[in-house]
Write a structure and sequence with these properties.
globular; 5 helices; 20% strand; alpha/beta; five-stranded mixed β-sheet
Length: 174
């Protein structure tokens, strides 16, 4: 009945609010500035989620949709994204990063770590270890990347359907 749907919607909204609250309250004893990065790939489109952890508290997150190019798997997308994201002049004006935690394995992480340390002229730890301290953040970043990818694909599909509708209404040829 209509009442059941309204009640289900209410509970769904409550669960969403609790999840948002839980995400923002995810605290650890970790000091310093940490970024947590995850990648999701579907249909040759990648979504990269970056969680910003400062002094043990998650203060924000952002999704990016880099062009895949020749990168074909998560590790390649991750490495390419990190080079583009961190190795630019704008990053030098931000708070220095102490750790970058990855939700997926990065085979050449020591090379990336060395490049970042040389660029920032300070120690930067790059880790794909799934230890207890970072496991929740890694899972959160991965879930966020997957969600953002689905939303992005849905938006693209919706835009394509709108264009096809306009094409039909205006009697335009393909």
């Amino acid at each position: 009945s209509k009442r059941d749907y309204e009640q289900a919607a209410y509970y769904r909204d409550q669960i969403i609010q609790l999840r948002k609250l839980q995400e923002t309250q995810c605290v650890s004893g970790d000091e310093g500035n940490t970024d947590v990065i995850a990648v999701a790939i579907n249909q040759d489109i990648a979504a990269v989620s970056v969680l910003f952890i400062r002094q043990g508290l998650m203060i924000g997150k952002r999704a990016y949709f880099p062009k895949m190019g020749i990168a074909s798997d998560i590790a390649e997308v991750l490495a390419a994204f990190m080079m583009q994201y961190y190795l630019n002049e704008e990053r030098l004006s931000h708070a220095p990063i102490d750790k970058i935690i990855l939700s997926d394995k990065l085979p050449n992480k020591h090379v990336v770590e060395t490049l970042l340390q040389n660029y920032f002229k300070r120690k930067v730890v790059v880790s794909d270890f799934r230890g207890a301290l970072y496991k929740q953040w890694q899972a959160m970043a991965k879930t966020n990347a997957q969600y953002e990818l689905v939303a992005h694909l849905s938006e693209k599909e919706s835009a394509l359907l709108k264009l096809k509708s306009i094409q039909t209404v205006l009697h335009l040829k393909n």
